[in-house]
Automatic annotation (TrEMBL):
Gene source species: Ceratosolen solmsi marchali
Signal sequence range: 1-19
Biological processes annotated in GO: cellulose catabolic process
Name by which UniProt lists this protein: Endoglucanase
Pfam family name, one: Glyco_hydro_9
Enzyme class: hydrolase
């Protein structure tokens, strides 16, 4: 079934000259014909499992005995703080080997939100323990990084130093400088997002491991206070990060953290503070995107879910209405916000609007869900090719990812692997690549990271959206119309 849908699509594309496609594409409503639905259950289910496998391939530290990635081993075992603190564990940010707190934390919060909202999807796949382990791999690391009340390590490894190395993380031989925030060098965005990650994850451990949930909540409260009392942008404290992962503002992270703390602790003072930050930082304005450093749309939807108040419902509606109806698209119908992480941007909006669609009176739930399906279908192959490594029709084979570009050991691995124009020998299952450009063009070349980069945060909203769609399918099957 799946294959025949692809064959039809491919035949159509082959039979049409590129010029003809471009011309037709000018009629914006014609994108529906290109984005062919792939409806089977097994697609969302299988890809959701694979996307969790991608996170497993990104693990740093001493791996668990049940590690499923045969080509990965222990790494980064000497990662230490300034005073020798153990900073092993956590996840590598992308195809490189920096452990980068800000995106690791926003990834964690999004993965947790998806699992908190749609646990049946994970349960149905037998993946609830897998997502819990994935979250715990990050939160155990954040707890290590939170060495005292107002000190948080936010980065291990320096981007410039790290980028001189191409090879296996197990053979990484670069120096691993560490960077932290403290009261003299604050980072309300980083501390706030880490607090949100810990608080949201605590919800998934509340019943299965209440002690761990309490521990997460304790660290989340302290980090929120640190963020609130000592204000600043983390990239002014951790300067090397600015050129790669600039933060823009911290008001959204303060509101985000407080809202998650309310959801996790039931204490109304946190809701009051979230609402205060919302007003104070003017978070009602309609954002253009939902991204690791732009969380306003997430705050709007979460506050709408938590309070049901008109103000937040309207804000969420304005964002989803705009994204679904007016945001720029590629000729084949993909939401187009930025050329870096095209697919991540589209999947993040799909995720947010699936969240919005689950609550009463936030716009048109059917419209938002159709939109989400369409964006995810584009990613899975609806526009002619899959953008998920190791899955579907013609998937990317050269993700910009050092570890997976290495041959089996003991063959050496280095820059010649970076330069080799051939598929990565190790398949990085479940990784969503950055994606096509605004004309739906894609270069499956390792060095073209604008197209082939993979990162923790690129996969996060995507994983969540798959869970949301899977849960809808399960519901539709349980209550057929
Ligand atoms: C690190 O390893 C690479 C490749 O394995 C090698 O070329 C380089 O000389 C090593 N650098 C150091 C500082 O040992
Ligand atoms: C918050 O309230 C919910 C629902 O009543 C409850 O299940 C949960 O255990 C509470 N959480 C805490 C930390 O008290
Ligand atoms: C969003 O769309 C709905 C459904 O068409 C419409 O009723 C509503 O007024 C719109 N809301 C905003 C804030 O744009």
């Amino acid at each position: 079934m799946k294959a025949s849908a692809f064959v039809t699509c491919v035949t159509f594309l082959v039979a049409t000259t590129p010029a003809a496609i471009d011309k037709r594409a000018i009629v914006t409503s014609s994108y529906h014909r290109y984005v062919r639905p792939i409806e089977e259950d097994s697609d969302y289910a299988r890809v959701l499992e694979l996307s969790l496998l991608f996170y497993e391939a990104q693990r740093s530290g001493k791996l668990a005995p049940d590690n499923r990635i045969a080509w990965r081993g222990d790494s980064g075992l000497d990662d230490r703080g300034d005073d020798g603190e153990d900073l092993t564990g956590g996840y590598y940010d992308a195809g490189d080997f920096v452990k980068f707190g800000f995106t690791m934390a926003s990834t964690t919060t999004l993965l947790a939100w998806g699992a908190v909202s749609w646990p049946e999807a994970y349960a149905r796949l037998g993946q609830l323990d897998v997502i819990r382990e994935a979250l715990k791999w990050a939160t155990d690391y954040f707890i290590k990084c939170h060495v005292s009340e107002n000190v948080l390590y936010g980065q291990v490894g320096d981007f410039t130093v790290d980028h001189a190395f191409w090879g296996r993380p197990e053979e990484l031989n670069t120096s691993r400088p560490v960077f932290k925030i403290d009261p003299e060098h604050p980072g309300s965005d980083l501390a706030g997002e880490t607090s949100a990650a810990l608080a949201s994850t605590s919800l998934l451990f509340r019943t299965v491991d209440p002690d761990y949930a309490d521990k997460l909540l304790r660290h989340a409260r302290e980090l929120y206070n640190f963020a609130k009392v000592h204000r600043g942008l983390y990239h002014e404290a951790i300067r090397g990060a600015a050129q790669y992962y600039e933060s823009t503002d911290y008001g959204d992270e303060l509101a985000w953290a407080a809202a998650w703390l309310f959801k996790a602790s039931n204490e109304t003072k946190y809701l009051d503070e979230a609402e205060h930050h919302y007003q104070h930082f003017h978070l009602r304005e309609r954002p253009n995107e939902f991204f690791y450093n732009k969380k306003v749309a997430g705050v709007q939807v979460l506050l709408a879910q938590l309070t049901g108040q008109q103000e937040y419902r309207n804000a969420a509606k304005a964002f989803c209405n705009f994204s679904v109806r007016q945001q720029k698209r590629t000729p084949k119908g993909l939401l187009y916000i930025d050329k870096f992480g095209t697919l991540c941007h589209a999947a993040n909006v799909a995720f947010i609007c699936l969240q919005a669609a689950d609550y009463p009176d936030i716009g048109d739930p059917q419209e938002y869900r159709e939109f989400a399906k369409q964006q995810i279908h584009y990613i899975l192959g609806g526009a002619g090719r899959s953008y998920v490594v190791g899955w579907g029709h013609n998937p990317p084979t050269q993700p910009h990812h050092a570890a997976s570009s290495c041959p089996d050991k003991p063959t050496a691995c280095g820059w010649s692997e970076f330069d080799r124009n051939a598929p990565n020998p190790q398949v990085l299952y479940g990784a969503l690549v950055s994606g096509p450009d605004e004309a739906d063009r894609f270069h499956d070349r390792r060095e073209d990271y604008v197209y082939t980069e993979v990162t923790l945060d690129y996969n996060a909203g995507f994983t969540g959206a798959l869970a949301g769609l899977l849960q809808l399918q399960a519901k539709a099957q349980a209550h057929p119309r």
